[in-house]
Amino acid sequence: MTALWLLFLSLGAAGVALCLARAAAGPTTPDRVVGVDGTVTISIALMVLLSSFFDRQIYMDVALVYAVLGFIGVLAVARYMERGV
Amino acid sequence: MIYIAILTVAMLIAGLAAYFFRDLIAAVVACAAVSLIASVLFYLLQAPDVAMAEAAIGAGLTTAIFVIAIRKTGRYEK
Questions:
Q1: Is some CB atom of chain B closer than 8 A to the CB atom of A52?
Q2: B48/A20 touch (CB, cutoff 8 Å), yes or no
């Protein structure tokens, strides 16, 4: 069972690392935006997974708040790039 | 505890990127990355309420306000 948890968390950490590498290396600004947004999404999945791993309900609320509010920043940047806020 | 050190170094790199970017939109995105990593650190250090506040303020509010301010002024730093 522990090996399975380790596999899940390693896959999530690898996804976060790849998205952060894209955000760090991206030549244009939209690359960085999409990289950070992918990091946010995978982090939400990791938070839900860790909430189940630690067996604590309150940890799920952080993932919920982040999922509800995390898209606002990307939305603002996308609207700015398309035609202004 | 090695992952906390890795996350701290990533946060430092993102903060330096926010300082050195000439394109201010990219700097705002780097600032959002700093806020995200800080929230994950609070989560891992077992302070979920602080992580919730950091998520609400850092992810939603500051990025939108910075983008509105850049819209009113200028995108590129001289």
A1: no
A2: no
Chain B residues closer than 8 Å to A85 by CB: 67-68, 71
Burial A49-77 (b: 16+ CB within 10 A, else e): bbbeeeeeeebebbbebbbebbbebbbbb
Predicted TM-score (pTM) of this structure:
0.88
Domain count, chain B: 1
pLDDT tens digits for range A28-76: 888 888 998 899 999 999 989 988 888 888 888 888 888 888 888 888 8
Range of the domain at A36: 2-83
Q: Is residue B17 part of a domain?
A: yes
